[in-house]
Write a structure and sequence with these properties.
Blueprint lengths: L1 H9 L20 E4 L4 H4 L8 E11 L2 E10 L11 H10 L42 H7 L5 E2 L4 E7 L8 E3 L8 E8 L12 E8 L22 E3 L49 E3 L7 E7 L10 E7 L3 E7 L6 E5 L7 E4 L9 E7 L4 E12 L5 E11 L2 E15 L3 E15 L4 E8 L7 E5 L8 E4 L7 E2 L7 E6 L5 E6 L22 H4 L3 H11 L1
Parallel strand pairs: 1-3, 4-6
Antiparallel strand pairs: 2-3, 5-11, 6-7, 7-8, 8-9, 10-11, 12-13, 13-26, 14-25, 15-22, 16-21, 16-23, 17-20, 17-22, 17-25, 18-19, 18-21, 23-24
Length: 541
């Protein structure tokens, strides 16, 4: 009744219609300050606990409806000592619809002092709340203040500025797949109200938007609960203090933090596995020192690397350095795949005609590369040979792009095949570093039931797709993985380059159209100069 009475008494003095900015007929946000202290500070049952709620029924004022409201105290212990933290927290509820990210049953701390929607609303000197934490990266995402960069291929040496000065965060999951469970990475620094945080550096959050209990159900090693948080902070020190209700945050939580942790992956504590304890291929490595701009490697796939060239040699001369190297051992090729090598089942094509039905698997790589072969596991029991159309296509917003065909052909699958690998040679299709491509197959006959593609028994990596309408709609297969693989190689595994140094004539051209701007070096120094080795790497990759 207090809120309704306050609105009625204020009506002659306030034009409530000015506060319906989205024109939905309701006051957007209504804050009511009650006399005296708040129960969240005093602990007294005679005081009012700050809250966001709604009236029993909407109240008409000035042509709009007042319905939801937020109520906060006049002061904490005495007039004049009120701080802004509780107002900012309740505004998160009232204006932005954010949930509480503390543990409402009191058995753990949720996000603790790392978020305004947890106990971060109390950050700052006594009586608390004078320097409340900013919203965490997930809250900023929900509010529309940051759009995380979705990492679809491994990023090496990513630049991560302070989120308080540059709205930057990174969303990580296997190959950039967009599902309710994912990791968020942000850089928190002592900027503005965040100056009272318990530490500074990268904050890595594990998010599961399928959780409806907010941060009430904690999990940590040895805990018997099978629940987990909506938004959990992956604490670098591996102590799980927030979940165990030991503290509300400390300098061991961010990365590298007080424990100097520079790697977060499937084998660290905490780890990057999903809540079913399966590998996600997510990793944050080579985390640099805490600062206004931090660096790290952000990985969402296994991230194999090409072997280095062998026998690098540099022969110096008058303004010219001759760079030579041999092919790397093993030929410099890598086979990319997600399957475990064993077909647990086969996915049978739906119905004839099959010209509009494609199966696809996506791949990427951190370095520049060429695509050499695609390999498929197929079954064909019809008794006669069948042709399978094979395609190599680009990416369009995270799905295969049938309008961007990079290569195509066909492979023959014998009519007696109960399951085997079949390979198509794409003949060195070049791709840039981090480029995403898909290998596709399509049975080009009209016989149903006996044509099928192999599926393994592993948990899915989220990069298997199919379409029944010629690519108008792509469906992600989240049961297992299609047994498709791609073989890639370095585009220039060996060679001989003349890299010209700057000389009095200003000549700076090099073979293959490359441009070299190396400082003059002596013949003796040429074989030891890191810049020359890096030049070779650039030429190779």
């Amino acid at each position: 009744r207090l809120a309704e009475d306050a609105i009625i008494l204020a009506d002659p003095l306030v034009n409530f219609s000015q506060y319906d900015n989205n024109s939905d007929g309701y006051v957007d946000a209504l804050f009511i300050i009650h006399a005296g202290p708040g129960a969240e500070f005093t602990g007294s049952g005679n005081d009012i606990w700050s809250h966001k709620w709604s009236l029993v029924a909407p109240l008409a004022v000035d042509g709009v409806m007042a319905f939801t409201y937020s109520m906060e105290p006049e002061y904490w212990s005495g007039p004049g000592d009120m701080t802004c933290g509780v107002y900012a927290h309740e505004m998160g509820h009232s204006v932005f619809g954010l949930p509480d990210l503390y543990d409402r049953d009191g058995t753990s701390e949720g996000l603790g002092e790392w978020s305004i929607m947890a106990s971060g609303s109390w950050n700052g000197p006594w009586p608390g709340g004078g320097s409340p934490a900013h919203p965490d990266a997930w809250c900023r995402y929900q509010m529309g203040y940051v759009t995380p960069t979705v990492v679809t291929g491994n990023i090496y040496g990513a630049s991560i500025p302070s989120i308080a000065t540059t709205p930057t965060a990174f969303r990580l999951w296997t190959n950039g797949v967009m599902i309710p469970q994912y990791f968020l990475v942000e850089n928190r620094q002592p900027v503005g109200y965040d100056a009272a945080l318990p530490g500074f550096g990268l904050c890595i959050y594990h998010v599961d938007e399928d959780i409806g209990t907010q941060n009430d159900d904690e999990w940590y090693p040895g805990h018997t609960s099978f629940g987990h948080y909506l938004v959990a902070l992956e604490q670098a020190d591996g102590m799980w203090n927030l979940e165990q209700n030991i503290n509300r945050g400390d300098n061991g939580d961010p990365w590298p933090g007080s424990t100097a942790r520079t790697v977060f992956d499937k084998n660290t504590i905490p780890d990057s596995r999903n809540y079913a304890f399966l590998n996600t291929d997510v990793a944050v490595r080579n985390i640099g020192p805490s600062g206004s701009t931090m660096t790290a490697d952000l990985e969402v796939s296994p991230g194999a690397t090409f072997p280095a060239p062998a026998n690098l040699a540099a022969t110096g001369g008058d303004g010219v350095v001759d760079l030579t190297w041999d092919p790397p051992s093993g030929g410099g090729t890598i086979e990319l795949g997600y399957d475990d090598g064993t077909a647990e089942s086969f996915y049978v094509v739906i119905s004839p005609p099959q010209g509009d039905e494609y199966f696809a698997v996506g791949f990427s790589h951190g370095s520049a590369y060429t695509i050499d072969f695609a390999t498929f596991y197929m079954r064909n029991d019809i008794g006669s040979n069948a042709m399978v159309d094979v395609f190599l296509v680009g990416d369009a917003g995270g799905v295969p792009d049938l309008s961007n065909v990079l290569g195509s052909g066909s492979v023959l699958v014998p009519g007696t095949s109960s399951g085997d690998w079949y390979t198509f040679d794409f003949t060195d299709v070049g791709m840039p570093a981090g480029g995403v491509f898909y290998v596709l197959c399509r049975w080009n006959s009209n016989v149903m039931a006996e044509h099928a593609v192999g599926a393994d028994a592993n948990a899915p990596d989220g990069m298997s797709w199919w379409t029944e309408d010629n690519g108008a709609t792509w469906n992600q297969w989240l049961t297992h993985d299609w047994m498709f693989r791609a073989t890639i190689s370095s585009p220039s595994p060996s060679g001989d380059i003349l890299s010209y140094t700057l000389n009095p004539l200003g000549h700076k051209d090099a073979m293959f159209g490359q441009r070299a701007e190396l400082l003059p070096v002596t013949a003796a120094a040429a074989t030891q100069t890191p810049a020359l080795e890096e030049a070779v790497r650039r030429q190779q990759f």
